[in-house]
């Protein structure tokens, strides 16, 4: 079997690191991307992978990352958009976007769209890490910076809802060019997730509840199933999954008009100043 090139963002920790280890052990060429230079470098050394460091709170770094990937890898078989997180109080990035929305949606949207030619030529899979938290998101195209309505959990849920809408619209626009895509919920995983946020969720990761959470390897299971499976046979391109099965999402996730409008709005928001 031909060795695949698999790019995983948010790979320095958690399910991204777990998936990277499994795929590298299976013989794939894994490229890990993370925000922490130290942790990303350590993982890359451990699994003998290439690595890049990029902070998704700065879209200039995302553009640089995309240019490096296009230059170094003429073929990318899988792009796993796994970077994301839940933040604290409402803050704006250097690009003027609400931080939660940019890190969870706009940055992976930009990375994917900058790589579209390479991905299409490779008949690639684009796998987007969403969350069941999409259920308490509410997407308002006229308030994407959450200026008029902000809560930590709603902002995170909206970012994860945007992941699903992006997945369905990516399928609609580029499936005929050979790209297949899916979004998934990994489960509640025992990681450093939410540690730096102001969300009440952060406390669960530091208490006895931690014992009942999934391990990173368990959380990576559906991601690996999507990466290793075949769209059209094992799973449906453009859909949202949990535990290797189709999952129910926020009702806004099925609004095709909203998905198209979000794509167009996202293009505007990621344009260089």
Textual characterization of the structure:
The structure is a single chain. With 273 residues, the chain is an alpha/beta fold. The protein is 41% helix and 13% strand. The protein is built from 10 helices and 8 strands. It has an 8-stranded mixed beta sheet, sandwiched between helices. α1 (14-25) links the parallel β1 and β2 (29-34). α3 runs parallel beside α4. It is globular. It starts with a strand and ends with a helix.
Overall pLDDT:
93
Q: Which strand order does the major sheet show? A: 3-2-1-4-5-6-7-8
Structural Rg: 17 Å
Structural class by secondary-structure content: alpha/beta
Topology:
Layout: E1 5-9, H1 14-25, E2 29-34, H2 37-47, E3 50-53, H3 59-72, E4 78-81, H4 99-114, H5 116-121, E5 125-129, H6 152-174, E6 180-185, H7 201-204, H8 216-219, H9 221-228, E7 239-242, E8 245-246, H10 256-269
Parallel strand pairs: 1-2, 1-4, 2-3, 4-5, 5-6, 6-7
Antiparallel strand pairs: 7-8
């Amino acid at each position: 079997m031909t060795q695949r090139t698999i790019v995983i963002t948010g790979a320095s920790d958690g399910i991204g690191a777990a998936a990277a280890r499994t795929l590298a052990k299976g013989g794939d060429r894994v490229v890990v991307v993370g925000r922490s230079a130290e942790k990303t470098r350590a993982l890359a050394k451990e699994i003998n992978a290439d690595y890049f460091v990029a902070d998704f709170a700065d879209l200039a770094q995302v553009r640089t990352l995309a240019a490096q990937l296009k230059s170094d890898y003429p073929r990318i078989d899988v792009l796993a958009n796994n970077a994301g997180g839940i933040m604290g109080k409402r803050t704006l990035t250097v690009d003027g976007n609400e931080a939660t929305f940019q890190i969870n949606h706009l940055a992976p949207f930009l990375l994917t769209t900058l790589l579209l030619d390479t991905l299409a030529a490779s008949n690639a899979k684009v796998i987007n890490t969403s969350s069941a938290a999409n259920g308490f998101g509410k997407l308002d195209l006229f308030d994407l910076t959450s200026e008029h309505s902000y809560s930590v959990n709603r902002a995170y849920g909206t970012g994860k809802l945007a992941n699903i809408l992006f997945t369905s619209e990516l399928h609609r626009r580029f499936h005929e060019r050979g790209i297949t895509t899916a979004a998934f919920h990994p489960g509640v995983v025992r990681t450093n997730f939410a540690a730096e946020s102001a969300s009440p969720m952060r406390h669960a990761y530091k208490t006895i509840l931690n014992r009942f959470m999934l391990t990173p390897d368990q959380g990576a299971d559906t991601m690996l199933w999507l990466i290793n499976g075949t769209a059209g046979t094992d799973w449906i391109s453009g859909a949202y999954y949990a535990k290797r099965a189709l999952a129910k999402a926020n009702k806004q996730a099925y609004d095709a008009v909203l998905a198209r409008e979000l794509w167009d709005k996202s293009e505007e928001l990621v344009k260089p100043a």
